[in-house]
Amino acid sequence: MTEFWTTILEFAQTTTARVGNQLMQDFGHVQASQKADGSLVTQSDKWADQEIRDAIASTFSGYGILSEEGNQTFPGTEWCWVIDPLDGTTNFTRGIPIWSISLGLLYQGIPVFGYVYVPPVNEAFHGFWSGSFELAVPSGAFRNHHPIHTNHDAPSNNHFFNVCSRSTSVIQAGFPCKIRMLGVASYNFLTVASGAVLGSVEATPKVWDFAAAWVIVQAAGGIWLSLKEEPFPLVPGEDYRDRSFPSLVLSRPELIPVFAPFVEKVKI
């Protein structure tokens, strides 16, 4: 791994660990307020967002920043960090131990590196994705620095598929797997990357919910299908505050005809 990518990985690891340690102190002990879009926010979200933005600004001069609780307009810089300081705020406030901190690094509006830390279970996922760029990007997806890959099993009643609360319309007669609902978009997708589930659908994820996971899923061998519009590359000057990107994530392309018919009603 080149010095550049080593620096990127070490920064993500160190920053999310530091922020996660503080969030664990607040976990289950804070009150949330409702934002205009109906989602919840706490002082912990806002603190974590500021901490991460300050760390980026002091380490990566000239890099743009797009974050859920800060600037939500893509600045159009060649390199840009996309931050979700606390994905799963409802779980966080209720003491449910599934929530995460996500950092995605974009090059020319497309994610090439993703890092997601899940403090309550001490899991850290990261991955690299060069796409069509001629960048010297490392390869692979990892959980706690061990390689991960998607599951190539055939669907059965002993396999899982994740949904969100707004995509329960997929639960119909004949659905080929057991259903799980975790309440955290990034973690929903990462369980596909790690091979724990065969697929996942999210009806209203924002770009900061999945910029990091988008990289990790594909680096692990999965496939990402946008059900409405393609999220990347991001558009300079575009405000992503109210933009949702319904997505179906699967462990392999052969499962598209199996699950696509069930997600038709999720398209919004």
Describe this structure in words.
- Strand 8 (140-143) and strand 9 form a beta hairpin.
- The strands form 3 sheets. Strands 3-4-5-6-7-8-9 form a 7-stranded mixed sheet, with helices on both faces. The protein has a 5-stranded mixed sheet with strand order 11-10-12-14-13, with helices on one face. The protein has a two-stranded antiparallel ribbon with strand order 1-2.
- Helices cover 27% and strands 24% of the residues.
- The protein folds into 2 domains: 3-147, Fructose-1,6-Bisphosphatase, subunit A, domain 1 (Fructose-1,6-Bisphosphatase, Chain A, domain 1), CATH 3.30.540; 160-266, 3-Layer(aba) Sandwich (D-Maltodextrin-Binding Protein, domain 2).
- Helix 1 (3-26) runs antiparallel to helix 2 (43-59).
- The radius of gyration is 17 Å and the shape is globular.
- It has helices spanning 3-26, 43-59, 89-94, 185-193, 207-219, 256-259; strands at 33-34, 40-41, 64-67, 79-87, 100-107, 110-118, 123-128, 140-143, 146-147, 160-162, 178-180, 199-202, 223-226, 247-250.
- The longest helix has 24 residues, at 3-26.
- The chain has 268 residues and is of the alpha+beta class.
- The model has no long low-confidence stretch (mean pLDDT 93).
Question: What secondary-structure arrangement, pairings included, does this model have?
Answer:
Blueprint: H1 3-26, E1 33-34, E2 40-41, H2 43-59, E3 64-67, E4 79-87, H3 89-94, E5 100-107, E6 110-118, E7 123-128, E8 140-143, E9 146-147, E10 160-162, E11 178-180, H4 185-193, E12 199-202, H5 207-219, E13 223-226, E14 247-250, H6 256-259
Parallel strand pairs: 3-4, 10-11, 10-12
Antiparallel strand pairs: 1-2, 4-5, 5-6, 6-7, 7-8, 8-9, 12-14, 13-14
